[in-house]
Amino acid sequence: LDLGSRASVDQTLSRLTDQGVIRRLARGIYDYPKTSPRLGRLSPDPDAVAAAIARKDGRVVQVSPARAANMLGLTTQVPAKAVYLTDGPSRTKQIGAQTIIMRNAAARNLVGAGKPTGAVFQALRYLGKDGVDASVVARLSRTIDADTRRALVKDALQAPGWMRPVVQQIAAA
Questions:
Q1: Is 29 helix (H, G, I), strand (E, B) or coil?
Q2: What values do phi and psi take at 107, rounded to 5?
Q3: Could you tell me the pTM of the whole model?
Q4: Does residue 63 sit in the same domain as residue 76?
Q5: Environment class of residue 39 by beta-carbon count within 10 Å: exposed (0-12), middle (13-18) or buried (19+)?
Q6: Is position 104 within any domain?
Q7: Are residues 77 and 129 in the same domain?
Q8: How many other C-beta atoms are found inside a 10 Å radius of the C-beta of residue 111?
Q9: What are the pLDDT digits (tens) for 103-151?
Q10: Domain total for the chain?
Q11: What's 43's DSSP letter?
């Protein structure tokens, strides 16, 4: 609103939406629509929408354990719904044909939220302590870069106790 009055900003956003320059996803959330030559107008990225919702509300957001495991290549299962953990209230947002589910989670489940380390902790949580073996450690150590490994060791102090030795193995590999 530092660009002008509320009415002028609303009018400008409305005009840009009518012209197709931007797309209104939800109240106060807009994006630049992407178009594919084959598929036409593409749906917005659910990760970007969830991050925008969290930013707007002053909350943190983290991908669900199943989605994190899929993103890091630890499972081929693709979650059917876009679920995110947040320190805010639980709610569901309908963005076009997509449903974005925000679930309230305890702080211990939000370690590293919004950072690459958060996805690693969520993926480990998805696999469970009995599901983590040498192949998982090797895969994660190949997937993440050196900076993320250092941050992972630092963030491990807040993670559950069973994850700490696993994180040490990932960082050392």
A1: strand
A2: -60, -35
A3: 0.82
A4: yes
A5: exposed
A6: yes
A7: yes
A8: 21
A9: 999 988 999 998 899 999 999 999 999 999 999 999 999 999 999 999 9
A10: 2
A11: P
